[in-house]
Amino acid sequence: MTQLGSPATESGPGPEGGSGPPSVRGSRLARRRRVLLGVGIAAALLAVGGLIGASFVKSPQQLAADTAAPPPTVTTAAVVSQILTSSVEMRGVVYPATEYDVYPSAPSSPGAAADGGSAGAAGSSGGSSAPVYISKLDVAAGGTVRNGKQLAELDGQPLFALAGTVPAWRDLTPGETGPDVTELQQALASLGYYDDGDTTGYYGAATEYAVTLYYEHLGYTPPSTGGVPAADVVFLPSLPATVVAVNGAAGQQPGQPFLELAARASLTLTGELPPGYASQVRSGLKVTIYDEVTGIHATGTVADLGTPTTTLPTGVIVPIGGGSGSAGSSGSAGSGSTGSSGSSGSSGSSGSSGSGGSSSTAFIPLTVRPSKPLAAALNGENVLVTVETGQTEGPVLTVPVAAIVTTAAGPSSVTVVGAHAKKRQVAVTPGISENGYVQVTPVTSGALAVGDRVVVSG
What we know:
Blueprint: H1 22-56, H2 60-67, E1 75-78, E2 80-82, E3 85-96, E4 98-102, H3 110-114, H4 116-124, E5 134-137, E6 144-145, E7 150-154, E8 157-163, H5 179-190, H6 205-218, E9 233-236, E10 241-246, E11 259-263, E12 267-273, E13 286-290, E14 297-305, E15 309-311, E16 316-320, H7 324-327, H8 329-333, H9 341-344, E17 358-370, E18 382-391, E19 396-400, E20 405-406, E21 412-417, E22 423-434, E23 437-442, E24 453-457
Parallel strand pairs: 4-16, 8-9
Antiparallel strand pairs: 1-24, 2-19, 3-12, 3-18, 4-11, 5-7, 6-10, 7-8, 10-11, 12-17, 13-14, 13-18, 14-17, 15-17, 19-23, 20-21, 21-22, 21-24, 22-23
Helix pairs in contact: 5-6
């Protein structure tokens, strides 16, 4: 029976034998699946969140471990076998022990040269006072001057060097006698022009012929007098010599002095040793020399130690030539200690570069004996001088200086790191040090060996 207004219903099984319509049942299953999926997602999110949260939450022990300082590290170095040398460094100046300053003069007048008496007077004054001009130069700074070498041409006449100790104070002409004639004969004989045909010291025909041959060899007409004008020759006591400086150029008047010459092997080196190191230095010790400007290296030995001073070293300046009567007097008065007027104007002169000067601090002059003649390029240079004050007798055990530990009581030791980082103390006796390494001798023989690792820090 159906009531009015009530929906119609059916009872009994449906077409599929189910209890209700299929659409109703599908929607219920979908709802269940969505609920289960949501629950799973929520559980997963909670798990992930828990893990993330746990990573930020640490126990006090973990916090202490994380903030603690890292374990100390140990730096080691190997024990090395090598030769060590101790040394003392100082500055030094190179200068000629003896410097010959050449002052040219104008030739004597022809009349004076022909007249023996007047020639002697004119020659003694070094020729006339007329201006002299350089026609050409035959030498340059750093060059070598030997017996018979032409130095320059002045007013068309040669200026040459001959070996001799007596200065050319007069014109030498036939008939003259004296030690200056003797040295002329000896110089020409060594060149192969004189054959000892005259009495020694007498200017005879053989000497005149030798002079003629020599002038022709140089390419000049021999003087009409048959002699050698004082203006043409420079007698040097020591040959060969090195040209220190040339003051003047072709077409100019020569400087005062015109030439500065140093006897070969006469360059001297004096080091300025601080007094505090005097006890470590003695004669005979090896010396190394280095010039930072030229890059030249040299060696030598300590020759002598002076007394403390503030006066810079200098050599002896010897004026040579007829024109040195006035200009050279200042240089010779102080035996090189005050220098000549010309040397102060020379760009290459060093013999007087330090003359008359002084140092602000006292030093001990240390004279160096070079193993071989110093290069001319070192003249006037301020060089580095290193004196080897000690050296080990062959290779020795060495460690870095930082590896040495010295206690207040005095004994020194090193820490050796063995297998499995095991450490042991080895007592040592330090010796010579060089370039950051120090010689060590173990107190107990065999306690330290090459290749052992020693602690240098940590």
